């Protein structure tokens, strides 16, 4: 006899509410079914995509959506040297260690984190297979690091790695170092130097405090970290060094109500024969953030076919100049360009006359 569960019952058990494909689209629902089928064992994100037959590039985005909606728990793990995520249905997820909680954790093997077991010697802990096997249990590893550090109070990193059973294991040692850096950044441990038998060891860590629930959440969070602020572009920084700020004060700044091409032509007309450069236009208009856009705009405006004959006086002309070792362009209007050429010709005639 075959027994089947109705769709309404499945939705009630897995999501806690009735059928709602607007809240949980069909593809996300299939992922939920795959995660729920593994119960307390959980499933790797890559295996989940193969299980339900979905594109591996789309699965992370959908699992992030399920995580935000509160249906699943997603934690970082390491499999064959590759960082990935392990997923559980929220009701089957293993609990996090709370601050000050020294209870034994039961999963695959017993974790005995009592003082007697951790400080008797430096032999590797019996449950080291949780992070030295095919996959890595980040939660168990961090819990053991904190427990060992707390009982020893101060311990060398080499001794800690020996206790964890990761000495000689390249990937595992990298992860231990990375976890220690995180614990140091949140104030749980501190890098110190310690003296033993008249010898100073500088590769030691000291226990400061237990991890809070907020620390655990930050440690086990998956996905991209917050973006770092973009570095300043050295290209426009070099350009701005050429700007003559004293003469730019004579020209009134650009306002958002004024078309940008009109302002560029106005600047070129105002400075006349001297002309205006791209860095000076940045300062007078949009700022250096839009340097590429302004450079592209001035290049287009300096094209000889842009203006019709009746607007030839508004045509922008570019001239190649060199300031020290830096080559750039200055922009001026046709009248200013002609005046500059006449002045240059008169100067040449004057010098020739003096030589004769």
Name the poorly predicted regions: 97-109, 225-241
What percent strand? Answer: 15-25%
Average of per-residue pLDDT values: 76
Biggest sheet: strands, sense, closure?
4 strands, antiparallel
Kindly provide the radius of gyration, computed on alpha-carbon positions and rounded to a whole number of angstroms.
34 Å
Name of the level-1 CATH class of the largest domain: Mainly Alpha
The strand order across the widest sheet is: 1-3-2-6
First-to-last CA distance: 120 Å
Derived structural class: alpha+beta
CATH architecture type of the largest domain: Orthogonal Bundle
- Report the order of strands and helices: HHEHHEEEEHHEHEHHEEHHHHEHHEEH
Proportion of residues in helical segments = 40-55%
CATH topology of the largest domain: Arc Repressor Mutant, subunit A
- Number of H/I helices: 16
């Amino acid at each position: 006899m075959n027994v089947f569960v109705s769709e309404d019952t499945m939705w009630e058990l897995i999501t806690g509410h009735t059928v709602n494909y607007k809240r949980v689209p069909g593809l996300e629902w299939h992922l939920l079914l795959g995660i729920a089928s593994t119960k307390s064992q959980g499933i790797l994100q890559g295996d989940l995509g193969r299980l339900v037959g979905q594109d591996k590039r789309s699965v992370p985005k959908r699992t992030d959506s399920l995580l935000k909606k509160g249906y699943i728990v997603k934690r970082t793990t390491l499999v064959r040297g590759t960082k990935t995520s392990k997923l559980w249905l929220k009701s089957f997820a293993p609990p996090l260690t709370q601050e000050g909680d020294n209870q034994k954790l039961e999963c695959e093997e017993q974790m005995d984190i009592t003082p007697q077991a951790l400080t008797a010697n430096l032999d590797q802990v019996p449950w080291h297979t949780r992070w030295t096997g095919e996959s890595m249990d980040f939660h168990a590893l961090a819990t053991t690091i904190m427990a060992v550090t707390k009982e020893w109070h101060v311990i060398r990193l080499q001794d800690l790695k020996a206790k964890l059973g990761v000495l000689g294991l390249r990937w595992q040692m990298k992860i231990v170092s990375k976890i220690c850096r995180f614990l140091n950044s949140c104030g749980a441990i501190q890098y110190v130097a310690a003296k033993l038998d008249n010898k100073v060891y500088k590769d030691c860590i000291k226990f400061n405090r237990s991890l809070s629930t907020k620390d655990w959440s930050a440690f086990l969070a998956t996905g991209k970290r917050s973006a770092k602020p973009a570095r300043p572009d050295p290209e426009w920084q070099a350009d701005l060094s050429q700007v003559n700020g004293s003469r730019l004060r004579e020209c009134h700044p650009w306002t958002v109500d004024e078309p940008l091409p009109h302002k560029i032509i106005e600047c070129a007309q105002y400075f006349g024969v001297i002309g205006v450069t791209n860095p000076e236009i940045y300062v007078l208009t949009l700022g250096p953030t839009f340097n590429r856009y302004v450079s592209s705009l001035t290049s287009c405006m300096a094209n000889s076919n842009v203006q019709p004959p009746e607007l030839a006086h508004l045509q922008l002309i570019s001239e190649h100049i060199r300031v020290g070792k830096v080559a750039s362009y200055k922009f001026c209007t046709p009248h200013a360009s002609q005046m500059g050429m006449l002045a240059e010709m008169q100067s040449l005639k004057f010098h020739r006359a003096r030589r004769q």
